[in-house]
Specification:
heterodimer, A: mainly alpha, 2% strand, flat, B: MetI-like fold, 16 helices
């Protein structure tokens, strides 16, 4: 991606003659109205999908979350009662605490792996490096469920190599899906699944940097490390922010991997392991849809807030979503 | 625009080979370690798929083939078990991924073009809302959408999976950013002056310029739908409508409770997983030159 882009700008239509003049004659007004109509026609299908599958569920979830269904009392308006219950519910808070801790550990690990891989791949252009680039990206094409399952097998003392390796060096095999190890095991699964995708985004951004910048730095005597961390990393800061946002959103709504590892983790993964698993259990095991809506909405709100705060904290001129 | 034009940097190539060698060895070792790490689970899957139930549970040499190779027998078993339910799941996965991915792409191209090339009141506000919605976690919408659909008696149908998959604000964002630069407004105006209608202008002037981003967004959409687990899991209870991930999850739950009716579900799960990852890997490998350029767009702006 060449960076011919930014200067020309997305707002070109605004610079058209029809919009530029403040006083318009009738034919210009007609043209502007026609343009608006055509613009809206192109956007209409998306606007419908957006309204029906994003706005409506959000509004409906919020509406449902304001009611409580009791066996004796029937459905009653309870105002923010469900939210008070959620934020004092040890199960919800426990899950929330887990995903927050998970983000704090996982995101830096993922960033380091993908950034290091991208920097090395950007510096080397051998066939081996091209092969490595594809291999690292490959897990992105593997469904999360299958990825979690494969690692579950590898962790398992029956199917995986852990038993063999352990007995070869004369120790007893570690239980990789036990209460103490599940955290690290899950960090590993998610890193494996997503680091390649993030690597490709950073790599593509690195490839888009004008190479004369590097020439100038080299002439000034920068060595490879300085080139990497003083020039390359700041040049792709936007991609890093984008990736962080993806990782943050994805991880806070953690569901598939623990849900898949549940049957083989011998009770380590409880029905309230993450907020999303808890919402799923509340909805489909206990049929408490009002409370499940409140949990979903509360989780969505927490995620939105986290991302918003993060973007605000890292905001700078020309940054990703700002 | 798409070409990764700076691939070969003159500076890199021109540097003396002698000075670069030591760093290259370290870098290659690092890459080698990454290759091993990222390939091990897939390698294990390929090996384990070749084994029958006895070989699987014998526990010896789980990272290498045993004497007998059972790919054909395992595949036959997979495709015939329970009246060929796996083939059904495979078909469902293809249907959901193609319908959801293609639908989301068409919607995103149209909307991106509308946002990028037409001025109208409310455009910037609307686009800001779209950007904000990228931050809404989509799984938070699953349970509310399920309740909404169940009121409309739409759960447990293919539409319950396909329709919500059409929503992709990020695809619209990518399209708008790309179209704003890749499609010159002068070109559109020239077509209009020549008497082409708006739709004709879009199809014959704008669309041909958008091939890389369309392939990228289509692939991202197909992957998202193909890999989706939470939505179909919540929406579907009829197992003949399941896509592969939900089906494999079902088998895994049964196998965990030793509930396969005397049949070893583990070997089916393993060969079924292998079959399910092959189509997307082929798609990515064969379409490399398109998506590798396209993926960087989101972060350029």
């Amino acid at each position: 991606m060449t960076s011919t882009t930014t200067a020309v700008g997305a707002d070109r239509p605004a610079a058209r003659p029809a919009r530029a003049t403040t006083r318009r004659n009738p034919s210009q007004r007609r043209a502007a109205r026609r343009q608006a109509l055509i613009g809206w026609t192109f956007i209409l299908p998306f606007a419908i999908v957006f309204a029906v599958f994003l706005i409506a569920p959000l509004v409906y979830a919020f509406y449902l979350s304001l009611f409580t269904k009791g066996l004796a009392t029937g459905t009653q308006f309870s105002f923010f009662g469900n939210y008070v219950q959620a934020f004092t519910d040890p199960s919800f808070l426990k899950g929330l605490w887990f995903v927050v801790r998970f983000v704090v550990v996982l995101v830096p690990v993922q960033m380091i792996v993908s950034l290091a891989a991208a920097l090395v791949l950007d510096a080397i252009t051998t066939r081996f490096a091209r092969f490595a680039r594809l291999t690292i990206f490959l897990p992105y094409a593997v469904p999360t469920v299958i990825g979690a399952l494969m690692w579950g097998f590898l962790y398992s003392p029956i199917f995986g190599p852990t038993q063999q390796i352990a007995s070869a060096i004369g120790v007893s095999a570690p239980v990789l899906l036990g209460p103490d190890t599940i955290f690290g095991s899950l960090v590993n699964v998610v890193t494996w699944q997503w680091a390649g995708y993030y690597m490709i985004i950073i790599y593509a951004a690195l490839q888009g940097v004008d190479s004369t910048v590097y020439e100038a730095a080299r002439i000034d005597g920068a060595n490879a490390w300085q080139l990497a961390f003083r020039i390359k990393v700041p040049m792709v800061a936007n991609s890093l922010v984008l990736i962080l946002v993806f990782a943050l959103i994805g991880t806070l709504q953690f569901f598939s991997e623990p849900q898949i590892l549940r049957p083989i983790a011998n009770g380590t993964i409880t029905p309230d392991f993450t907020p999303n698993i808890y919402a799923y259990s509340v909805a489909f095991s206990y049929a408490q849809f009002n409370y499940a809506s409140a949990i979903s909405f509360a989780l969505g709100f927490v995620v939105f807030l986290c991302v918003f705060v993060f973007l605000f904290a890292t905001r700078k001129r020309g940054s990703v979503f700002a | 625009m798409t070409a990764v034009s700076t691939r070969v940097r003159p500076g890199v190539a021109a540097r003396p080979a002698k000075r670069r060698r030591p760093r290259n060895v370290v870098a290659h070792l690092f890459l080698g370690a990454l290759i091993v790490y990222f390939l091990i689970p897939l390698w294990w899957l390929v090996i384990a798929s070749s084994k029958d139930a006895v070989g699987l549970f014998s526990g010896s040499g789980s990272l290498w083939f045993s004497d007998a190779i059972h790919y054909v027998a395992n595949l036959q078993d997979l495709f015939t078990y329970n009246g060929g339910i796996y083939l059904r799941w495979l078909g469902n996965s293809v249907l959901y991924a193609v319908a959801g991915g293609a639908g989301a792409t068409v919607i995103a191209v149209l909307a991106g073009y509308g946002f990028a090339k037409f001025a109208f009141p409310g455009r910037n506000l609307m686009f800001a809302v779209v950007l904000g919605s990228v931050m809404v976690p989509l799984t938070a919408l699953v349970i509310p959408t399920f309740i909404m659909f169940s009121d409309l008696h739409l759960t447990d149908t293919i539409w319950a999976v396909i329709l919500p998959s059409l929503l992709s604000p990020f695809a619209v964002y990518l399209m708008r950013v790309y179209i704003a630069d890749a499609v010159p407004t002068e070109l559109l105006d020239a077509a209009r002056v020549d008497g082409a209608g708006e739709f004709r202008t879009f199809v014959s002037v704008a669309l041909p310029l958008l091939r890389p981003i369309i392939v990228t967004v289509l692939l991202l959409g197909i992957v998202a739908t193909w890999n989706n687990y939470f939505l179909p899991l919540a929406m579907l209870s009829d197992s003949s409508l399941y896509p592969i991930p939900v089906g494999i999850g079902l088998w895994e739950g049964l196998a965990g409770q030793n509930n396969g009716g005397g049949h070893s579900l583990w070997s089916l799960i393993i060969i079924g997983s292998l079959v399910s990852v092959i189509p997307l890997i082929i798609a990515f490998l064969s379409l490399q030159k398109y998506w590798q350029g396209g993926l960087s767009i989101g972060s350029l702006k």
